């Protein structure tokens, strides 16, 4: 779903002749609007489409600047070489929107002061309205427009009371970072990876192995940790059908981008879309 953002981004860049936070926000808004339009068209025949949604993580490099935009709980991590020690350290670049984070719960309560049940602790997990963990996404129309939170939507997605403003948002958090010669690579991944690997562990893996196939190696490391937590062997975990494996670990998508020194040095170059990532994809890897 997040791939929809790419052509729209190129269109806005052509229109404005540059990349900016405003252009990125317009791209997210246009992607959201187009998907909700699709929901409207298919709602009566395919009501479950109203419950479909995706996190959206975008990275753009333009004139030596790195733009990271995120809606949801995917994460972008930078690997940077420390000059003094020559060690590669992990720097998290994205802001996550997950109700497990106290600041996100505080934000939801501030935006919805009239709703004491905006976040609910359910089975030791904080969820928005007791249903979903993320507070921002593309899609999830049933928590953005009340007209989609009623039959024929399946009852498990329906709220017991009406709502009068969107519960979730598609507004991204954006970070602008001037690239430095010490910046080596970027890891973009869905929360399924970060559930099992720390930022520094992921960077250590990228730094310790050849580039070719490094994203798959990160996924394998995360799956080994998932198996260990379940006190089972990695080989046995891999034998479990994908539909059942969702009970053992979340879907994992990973892309590793090795930075071009020419871009870091700020030499004239066209703006380039570097990455799109999302939650809800099959366990996969790209590099």
Automatic annotation (TrEMBL):
Record domain PPM-type phosphatase: where: 1-259
Gene Ontology MF annotations: protein serine/threonine phosphatase activity
Q: Name one Pfam family in it.
A: PP2C
- CDD domains in UniProt: PP2Cc
SMART domains per the record?
PP2Cc
Q: Domain of life, per the record?
A: Eukaryota
UniProt xrefs under PROSITE patterns: PPM_2
What name goes with this protein?
Probable protein phosphatase 2C 38 isoform X2
Gene giving rise to this polypeptide: LOC111482426
């Amino acid at each position: 779903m997040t791939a929809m953002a790419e052509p729209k981004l190129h269109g806005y860049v052509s229109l404005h002749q540059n990349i900016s936070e405003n252009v990125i926000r317009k791209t997210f808004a246009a992607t959201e609007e187009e998907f909700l339009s699709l929901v409207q068209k298919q709602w009566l025949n395919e009501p479950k489409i109203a419950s479909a949604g995706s996190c959206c993580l975008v990275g753009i490099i333009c004139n030596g600047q790195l733009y990271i935009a995120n809606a949801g709980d995917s994460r972008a991590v930078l690997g940077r070489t420390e000059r003094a020690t020559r060690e590669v350290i992990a720097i998290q670049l994205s802001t996550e929107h997950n109700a497990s984070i106290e600041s996100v719960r505080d934000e939801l309560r501030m935006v919805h002061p009239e709703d004491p049940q905006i976040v609910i602790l359910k089975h030791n997990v904080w969820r928005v309205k007791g249903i979903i963990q993320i507070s921002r996404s593309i899609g999830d129309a049933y928590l953005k427009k009340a007209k989609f939170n009623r039959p024929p939507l399946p009852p498990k997605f329906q709220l017991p009371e009406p709502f009068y403003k969107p519960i979730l948002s598609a507004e991204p958090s954006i970070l602008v970072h001037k690239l430095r010669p010490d910046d080596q690579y970027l890891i973009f991944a869905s929360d399924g990876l970060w559930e099992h690997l720390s930022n520094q562990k992921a960077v250590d893996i990228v730094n310790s192995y050849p580039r070719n196939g490094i994203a798959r190696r990160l996924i394998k490391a995360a799956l080994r940790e998932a198996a260990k937590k379940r006190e089972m062997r990695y080989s046995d975990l891999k034998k479990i059908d994908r539909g059942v494996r969702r009970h053992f670990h979340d879907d994992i998508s990973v892309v590793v981008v090795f930075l071009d020194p020419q871009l870091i040095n700020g030499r004239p170059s066209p703006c380039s879309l570097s990455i799109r990532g999302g939650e809800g994809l099959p366990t996969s890897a790209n590099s």
